[in-house]
TrEMBL record:
Keywords: Signal. It comes from Urochloa decumbens. InterPro entries: AB_hydrolase_fold, LACT/PDAT_acylTrfase. This is Phospholipid--sterol O-acyltransferase. Residues 1-21 form the signal peptide.
């Protein structure tokens, strides 16, 4: 059995004694907005090694937020993967993509990491990325095109990367990035929203998660590089006719509706400077105007250029957008993804959580960074649009909602990567005997259209729905997994995801595996922790796999339920 090296992408930046002094911490965290340099008295850099991705530093960030890839590393080690075969590749999440390479040589080092892993382990790597880590990996693949001769590019990928697991990937961006840019998002940190906004807008990476239209693409820099000799100009964005004939740029609704004063030649949005009484009087008398902005108008800068007269600090975002995204020499990241040219691609995300998809903003009358307030929020939830205020919402909701952070249309964009024929299987997330399994084979898949399974759901049961290629390019496999109620930030700690990832890895690595994908017919316990006490039947659940075996120190009946056979023997069922 081949043991593939495993690379984990996760954004991490470690600052010791994180919040012991907020001002000092801000000094170390903030970057100069225009050139992305550190404060002259303090700088922060990413941690390295597995410790950087398993848990965050103790302190105010504790509880659910502190554990990251820890459970996944434990699963790998428990089932026989050597710890030195698990390679963490954290990055400085504050920097825009080009600066990761310019300052840290991040992508050169990443390429070397893949090549070293191949020499040490004798096989290609498995790549796991979560959230913005997927954006980093996408940029690496595009950067690699310009580093390797075209005829060797696919060969390099085939030799060095066996499979790519994209977990919670914001493939069309996330509306929460707009909220963070205009009013601030704390993500549970003990800082004010204004301070969070100040930080967010100082980071060049802040625009990397901005939502964008699925209908607009940029020039192919790859071919420009080779046929024109150099890349000299910003990416020219070209939109399909559907962008102008359909509503909302392929999103459920307009992303931003913002109230601006009707008088544009005044400093209507207060800055740090004192505001004169005359200007204040004019603001109060002026009738405000409501302006709406689609995903395209967010990503191409129209939103920010419209409000910069009222919010001068927003000019830094416009500069970052033009320099680090529209003018990026490798890729404009604010364009739709194509399927990565990797043999095996798995796209995994949560669905049917209440997810923000639009905002109403208005001036607060306070100075920057608190000069905008959110007056209403639009949510998508299980096929409908809701507003915090209870007002009716116009739009085109998806049949499912997102994972609580990223909307469904963004997460599910990877369904476009599936082949023309798709097999769909729906199974309970919990261990099961196959009695509640539903399967539909060879469904026609048309590019650009969602795949809607005609399947039932039992109440109070959480399911996982698998979409898998029935037909694809020779040697390629694509699968999409949708996990009911899986939260964006917690999905990498969910036991069901750990189990499914491990079973797929086991299936791929084992020389005797016969099927294209691991079987979905049943799911039994794989570890002692998966055995439980069935109080209704006064015995251990799954008696064919688990038995009651007390060991000193067990404090409840469930702890005394243990596997009858070794995990290795149980795994043979899934080949």
């Amino acid at each position: 059995m081949i043991i593939y090296p495993t690379l984990l992408f996760f954004d991490t930046l470690i600052v010791v004694q994180l919040f012991s002094a907020v001002n000092c911490w801000l000094k170390c965290m903030l970057l100069e907005p225009y050139n992305q340099t550190d404060h002259p008295e303090c700088k922060s850099r990413p941690d390295s090694g597995l410790s950087a991705i398993t848990e965050l530093d103790p302190g105010y960030i504790t509880g659910p937020l502190s554990s990251v890839w820890k459970e996944w590393v434990k699963w790998c080690v428990e089932f026989g993967i050597e710890a030195n075969a698990i390679i963490a590749v954290p990055y400085d999440w504050r920097l825009p993509p080009s600066m990761l390479e310019e300052r840290d040589l991040y992508f050169h080092k990443l390429k070397l990491t893949f090549e070293t892993a191949l020499k040490l382990r004798g096989g290609p790597s498995l790549v796991f990325a979560h959230s913005m880590g997927n954006n980093v990996f996408r940029y690496f693949l595009e950067w690699l095109k310009l580093e390797i001769a075209p005829k060797h590019y696919i060969q390099w990928l085939d030799e060095h990367i066996h499979a790519y697991f994209a977990v919670g990937a914001p493939l069309l961006g996330s509306t929460e990035a707009v909220r963070a840019a205009l009013s601030g998002t704390t993500f549970g940190l003990p800082v004010s929203e204004g301070t969070a906004r100040l930080m967010f807008n100082a980071f060049g990476s802040s625009l990397w998660l901005m939502p964008f239209s699925k209908y607009c693409k940029a020039d192919n820099i790859y071919w420009k590089h080779f046929f024109e000799g150099k890349v000299c100009c910003p990416h020219r964005q070209q939109c399909d006719e559907a962008e102008y004939t359909s509503e909302y740029s392929g999103w459920p609704t307009d992303l931003v509706i913002i109230e601006v004063p009707s008088v544009r030649d005044m400093g209507a949005y207060p800055s740090i400077m004192d505001i004169t009484e005359n200007i204040t009087s004019s603001m109060e008398c002026g009738k405000p105007t409501l302006l709406s902005f689609s995903a395209r108008e967010v990503s191409d800068g129209t939103l920010f250029k419209t409000i910069e007269d009222y919010d001068p600090q927003i000019k830094a975002l416009v500069y970052q957008l033009e320099k680090y995204y529209q003018g990026d020499p490798v890729l404009n990241p604010l364009t739709p993804w194509e399927r990565p040219p990797i043999k095996n691609v798995f796209c995994i995300y949560g669905i049917d959580s209440k997810t923000e998809v639009g905002y109403y903003f208005a001036p607060s009358g306070k100075p920057y960074p608190d000069n905008w307030i959110i007056t209403d929020i639009i949510y998508e939830f299980e096929g409908s649009l809701l507003s915090r205020s209870g007002n009716s919402v116009s739009g085109k909701p998806n049949n499912s909602s997102g994972d609580g952070t990223v909307s469904y249309n963004s997460l599910s964009w990877c369904k476009n990567w599936l082949g023309p024929k798709v097999n769909i299987t729906r199974a309970p997330q919990a261990e099961h005997d196959g009695s509640d399994l539903q399967t539909v084979m060879n469904i026609d898949h048309h590019h650009g259209q969602d795949i809607l399974p005609n399947m039932t759901r039992s109440p109070h049961v959480k399911y996982i729905t698998y979409y898998e290629d029935a037909e694809s390019l020779p040697g390629w496999r694509t699968a999409v997994w949708e996990l009911d109620k899986a939260n964006h930030r917690n999905i990498v700690r969910m036991p069901v995801l750990m189990r499914e990832l491990w079973l797929e890895m086991w299936h791929d690595m084992h020389p005797e595996s016969k099927s294209k994908f691991v079987t979905k017919a049943f799911r039994g316990p794989l570890r002692n922790e998966d055995c439980r006490w069935d109080y209704a039947k006064a015995r251990c659940g799954f008696p064919e796999h688990c038995e009651y075996r007390y060991i000193f120190g067990d404090v409840h009946l469930g702890m005394s339920c243990r596997l009858k056979n070794t995990s290795t023997n149980l795994l043979q069922q899934y080949l």
